[in-house]
TrEMBL record:
GO molecular function: serine-type endopeptidase inhibitor activity
Family named by the database record: Belongs to the serpin family.
The name this protein goes by in its record: Serpin domain-containing protein
Keywords for this protein: Signal
Span of domain Serpin: 100-462
Keyword Lipid metabolism set for record: no
Taxonomy, superkingdom: Bacteria
Signal peptide: 1-21
Species in which this protein is naturally found: Flintibacter faecis
Keyword Amino-acid biosynthesis: no
GO CC annotations, alphabetized: extracellular space
Length: 462
């Protein structure tokens, strides 16, 4: 009988895989939702010194600030943050092609709708999928991710995970993974141990197809993504034939390095991409100051720094350049992978007008993954899941869903995403000052501290 493997990923902060997890990086703590009844073992995440609260070191009676006490705690926070982000030099090399091709594949043809997805979430999900496959099924994934071997991919994924993990009170960037196992199937322990060790994957085991087990999966995803994708997760379910499901999430929150003044937010018109010149009224945030302006043949761009984290990049297509034109432009992908290392740039005063937005999308990854060369896992006749289990024949990937959400306001960014896979040129700027007004469709990207893209999206209607 054909059997289904399920993978579930979540991002915005995102990823997962199924198996009987071993003891490495695990503890016995139970989650505060229905998943607790099914937990075999839960990942133990890195501990980080908390960012110090300045007010705790201020004496209201004397008006004095305990700078020495503050410095001790601050230095401990900085040391932990540096250690967490310290990864081998060049650990992300080779990912540029995957990010470029997947951004283009999953964001094109938006047809006036908002679209957003998490490249790093899908990367992590595919890396875990590679762990439970073999032969040509695995090779196609390795080729897409630019890895020479599963060992190379495993080491790189672990570095990417750690470089982008933060839960210190200043920045929240939590990547969580989980395995959802069919209670009637035995899984290869070495594979499950690898998922637990290298991907911090928690494991749960229960009756596939039961409403209770499905609800446990939804609860886990909602807990890991701060409830931002509750409406999307509500439709997730595993069939009785599901052998395994992998789930990965990322939950992300960060403040602007320099916040927008709420008093300056005002209504203005956003010009939609339509033949009749349709507009919508929305709230625009305003801020001016020293910034770097970047330009290429078809767009201009600026970035907004996030406190203790990476940046949000805002790319405005030139007049007459469609969003698909922009996504198919090699310069666009080169710029998104450049982390600001771009020849055509100039430091000047930039007066920004940015619409507040809350964009969400969910879609089936299957067609896009096939277009990107990952085909065998979907074909029951050739899919190779032997590293996962030897008990079940004819396993295939039956479903691959992804959802993501990004919202910005005067204070900063909140974002989340999940993926579920089931196995069954602008001109140079003026000399001193310029206006950068995002009053028509634009592209954005949120990058982590290491410059890798956490979320990329198209805003056609704020």
């Amino acid at each position: 009988m054909k059997r289904i493997v399920a993978l579930c990923l979540a991002a915005a902060c995102l990823i997962s895989m199924v198996g009987c997890a071993g003891d490495t990086n695990m503890d016995e703590k139970k989650p505060n939702n229905s998943a607790s009844a099914y937990a075999l073992a839960l990942a133990s995440y890195p501990e980080m010194a908390p960012y110090p609260n300045e007010m705790e070191y201020f004496d209201e009676k004397t008006g004095e600030f305990d700078s020495d006490g503050f410095d001790v705690v601050y230095d401990a926070w900085q040391a932990d943050r540096k250690a967490q982000r310290s990864q081998p030099e060049g650990y992300a090399d080779g990912l540029e092609a995957f990010f470029a091709s997947s951004i283009r594949e999953f964001l094109s043809n938006s047809n006036g709708a908002n679209k957003v997805y998490s490249p790093i979430n899908i990367y992590m999900a595919l890396a875990m999928l590679a762990e439970v496959t073999d032969g040509e099924s695995r090779q196609q994934i390795l080729d897409l991710l630019g890895s020479e071997s599963i060992e190379t991919l495993r080491a790189q994924a672990a570095s990417v995970w750690n470089a982008n993990y933060s839960n210190d009170g200043a920045v929240t960037s939590i990547l969580a993974n989980s395995l959802w196992l069919n209670e009637s199937v035995n899984f290869n322990q070495s594979t499950m141990d690898s998922l637990a060790t290298n991907y911090y994957a928690s494991s749960f085991r229960g009756e596939m197809g039961s409403e209770e087990f499905n609800q446990a999966l939804r609860d886990w995803i909602n807990e890991q993504t701060g409830g931002l994708l509750e409406a999307q997760a509500d439709g997730l379910s595993m069939d009785p034939e599901t052998v395994m499901a992998l789930a990965s999430t990322i939950y992300y929150r960060a403040k602007w390095h320099s916040e927008f003044n709420e008093a300056r937010t005002e209504k203005s018109l956003f010009h939609l991409l339509s033949a009749d010149g349709e507009t919508v009224e929305c709230d625009f945030m305003h801020k001016g100051g020293s910034n770097t302006y970047y330009w290429a043949d078809q767009f201009g761009a600026v970035s907004l720094s996030l406190e203790g984290s990476g940046k949000m990049w805002l790319l405005l297509p030139d007049e007459g350049v469609t969003m698909d034109d922009l996504l198919n432009d090699e310069q666009t992908m080169e710029f998104l992978n450049s982390n600001g290392n771009w020849e055509n740039s100039k430091h000047l005063i930039v007066n920004m007008s940015v619409p507040k937005f809350d964009v969400v999308s969910d879609f089936d990854l299957g067609e896009g993954l096939r277009a990107l060369g990952v085909t065998d896992v979907f074909d029951v006749q050739v899919a190779d899941f032997t590293p996962m289990t030897s008990e079940v024949a004819e396993i295939f990937l039956s479903k691959a869903d992804h959802a993501a959400r990004v919202a910005i306001d005067e204070e900063g960014v909140t974002a989340a995403a999940y993926t579920v896979m089931m196995m069954n040129g602008a001109a140079a700027p003026p000399e001193e000052e310029m206006d950068f007004v995002l009053d028509r469709p634009f592209l954005f990207a949120i990058t982590g501290a290491d410059g890798l893209p956490l979320f990329v999206g198209v805003v056609n209607r704020p």
